[in-house]
């Protein structure tokens, strides 16, 4: 669906926008595990100003292709995020449910600002309105794998994004 070259090109553009907005604000870049780890890595290596990196784990899918409707959050934050500029890095926004939970949780800590950058946006699937500051690509409702994203924990290491096709069913 999206080649490694296309991903690289778009992430470079996004990094330029993020630099313009965040340079000098010492933001906390918040990676969402596991799916967002490659996007975050490629993004931050193109940001040449002070920032900090934290990770949060949010799980709503289990091993299925459908959102389970409830979200588990696992945090291990080593810094105080009160009054800090937070930038959440997400792999893909589907129903919006995971992000909604995450935003509400982080809001309680009293950040100075809270924005989201998502690599992929399945806009037509949204069940809850969520504010996205930056989006890499808008895609149709297909289950995708690669570049950090999995199906039952596999395929995260693909350097491109592909549509998942289950060869065991038809
Ligand atoms: P939402 O809560 O429905 O918005 O789902 C968001 C989360 O589900 C994403 O951060 C992903 O981790 C996962 N997800 C949603 N769609 C896909 C997909 O097509 N492939 C892999 N993971 C997905
Ligand atoms: Mg995710």
Key structural traits:
single chain, 170 residues, alpha/beta, Rossmann fold, two-stranded antiparallel ribbon, 3 helices, binds inosinic acid, binds magnesium ion
What does this structure look like?
It is built from three helices and eight strands. The protein has 170 residues and is an alpha/beta fold. It has one domain: 3-Layer(aba) Sandwich (Rossmann fold). It has a six-stranded mixed sheet with strand order 3-2-1-4-5-6, sandwiched between helices. Helix 3 links the parallel strand 4 and strand 5. The chain is globular, with a radius of gyration of 16 Å. The two termini are 20 Å apart. Magnesium ion binds at residues 32, 35-36, 58, 90-91, 98.
**What ligands does this structure carry?**
inosinic acid, magnesium ion
CATH class: Alpha Beta
Cα distance, first to last residue?
20 Å
Give, in order, the helices and strands: HEHEEEHEEEE
Which assembly state applies to the chains in this document?
single chain
Mean pLDDT: 92
Structural class: alpha/beta
CATH architecture identity: 3-Layer(aba) Sandwich
Uncertain parts: none
Number of E-type strands: 8
Helix count from the secondary structure assignment: 3
Structural domain count: 1
Across the major sheet, the strand order is 3-2-1-4-5-6
Globular, elongated, flat, extended or rod-shaped: what is the shape? globular
CATH topology: Rossmann fold
Percent of residues in helices:
10-25%
> Could you tell me the strand content as a percent range?
25-35%
Q: Radius of gyration, Cα only, in angstroms?
A: 16 Å
Question: Tell me about the biggest sheet?
Answer: 6 strands, mixed
């Amino acid at each position: 669906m999206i080649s490694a070259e296309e991903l690289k090109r778009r992430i470079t553009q996004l990094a330029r926008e993020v630099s313009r907005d965040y340079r000098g604000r010492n933001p906390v870049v918040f990676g969402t595990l596991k799916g967002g780890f490659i996007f975050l890595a490629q993004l931050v290596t193109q940001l040449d100003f002070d920032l900090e990196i934290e990770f949060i784990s949010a799980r709503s899918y289990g091993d299925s292709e459908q959102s389970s409707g409830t979200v588990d959050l696992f945090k291990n934050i080593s810094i105080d995020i009160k009054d800090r500029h937070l930038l959440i890095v997400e792999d893909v926004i589907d129903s919006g449910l995971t992000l909604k939970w995450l935003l509400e949780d982080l809001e309680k800590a009293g950040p100075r600002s809270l924005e989201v950058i998502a690599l992929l946006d399945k806009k037509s699937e949204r069940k809850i309105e969520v504010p996205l500051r930056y989006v890499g690509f808008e895609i149709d409702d297909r289950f995708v794998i690669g570049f950090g994203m999995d199906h039952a924990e596999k395929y995260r290491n693909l350097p491109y994004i592909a549509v998942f096709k289950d060869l065991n069913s038809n």
